[in-house]
Design goal:
142 residues; four-stranded mixed beta sheet; 3 helices; 20% helix; MutT-like; EC 3.6.1.55
Length: 142
Amino acid sequence: MENAGPARRSILVVAAALIDPEGRVLVQQRAPGKSLAGLWEFPGGKAEPGESPEEALVRELDEELGIAIDAAALSPVAFSTATDDALSLVLLLFASRVWRGVPRPFDAAALRWCAIDALRRLPMPPADVPLIDPLAPWLSAT
């Protein structure tokens, strides 16, 4: 078999759809200077070696938003993939309606609570877009 070039680096990324009592989801805007700056995304980040996806998301939400969440409160929703010449990314989306603290944008330019229709209109990274439709039933559930 012929080598098609340098191997892509694979990363696992976890994200949260934090859902408020009105059925809106929290998204954050990527900060200036970051890749995909200005786009809106579900909060989260890369899983570290040895971390479960839930453990990684608990850590990331503390670091990025200053909130505490129990791993047991995270429900899997969907996943997506994105690939370019250097990277193969798998993004796992979890939903939760329960956390402690008020989300603050420690690692983002801004935060926004969005209903599903508003979410569909936001400019988002390619890996986040396919997660919107699977999330829709979660936002309408009470």
